[in-house]
Give the backbone structure.
Amino acid sequence: MRGCRLMIPFAVLLFLPLFLSDSALAQRSVGSQQKWQQAVSGAEKEGRVVVFGPPGDIVRTAITQGFRKAFPKVTIEYTGGRGGELATRLKAEMDAGLHNVDVFLTGTSTAVVYLPKQALGLIPPALILPEVADPKHWRDNRLLYSDSTTPDNLIFVNHLSPLIVYNLDQVKPGDVDGLHSLLEPKWKGKIVLNDPLPSGAAHFHFRWIWELLGPDKAKDYYRKLREQAGAVDRDQRRQIEWVAQGKYAVLVAPSGGVLAQLLQRGLKVGVLGEFKDVGGWSTASFGSLVLLNRAPRPNAAAVFTNWLLAKEGQTAWSQALYHMSRRVDVPTDHLPPYVIPQTGGGYWSKDPKRGDKYWLSDLAENPNRTPEEEGILKQLFGR
């Protein structure tokens, strides 16, 4: 009997941590619910949220209608445009003492290159819902930030960026599936280049080549590719339509977001996501989120952020832009094959090794060009 009396307190001690753990989780859940209710109530009093994001009617409709359905008492004002143009406008407003934008959805390089660090707010305090804040809902069991030292630019998308778009009547896929295939004489004058000087897809495409080949070989490649080009253009929609119409056979470094919306509208072009010899590069595209440090409507910004980063918002975003969400519960069956990396392909940031196929473009150390790279690009593409 004495042994039995001893077993009871031992069992209690054994399972006490579990009870305490469950209690702590319950308290945390109640706390997050209260904080969420306060944020929603505050957002409704603020009345609206102002969002800058990618261009296009499809993504605008998906985001604005989805958010309005979820939060009908909060008006969403959405302005779409090229990241660099929106960032330039945003910085000019801030310099003039105007603070009207709450959330900026853009590429990681745009925030790094165009906006001062002090303009960015910390994101973790705004992540209220457990399904958003808990890393288990995200790929690799972590929330990913472009700068590992300061969580102010959250990456919610990661997939392959399309390398080229080609005309289906003029080009066979096997004709342009290697990095140096584009330098063959038959393509001279038949290539349009997305201008690499502004931020965006072409900026990173040329950065990838620089990191992949090294400075000397990259400069040689830049020169030869520029000589091949019949046009260099900054209108991301027009350059894709030129290829579809047959004005040019190949477009190098298209905008993935603009391309996705044109494909959804029925435009017929071929797309290559990686070269057979050197792979490709992964990107957040427009899929990184910045909260402005002096946002005038912090509750509305937090509510929008949680809606966008939860399954509902991420699914709407992914379907509108063909972006591969970092959430593990967002479906991928609607995505085109060119955005999905091959299983087993290694990722690299500096100095690729054998088996590495995909350059990680969204790390903070990667966006800015070296002075040497900047010099050759301005020499070749400066206006």
Q: What stands out?
A: The first strand starts at residue 48 and ends at 53. Confidence is low (pLDDT under 50) at residues 1-8, 10-16. The first helix runs from residue 2 to 46. The chain has two domains: 8-158+285-321, 161-283+344-381.
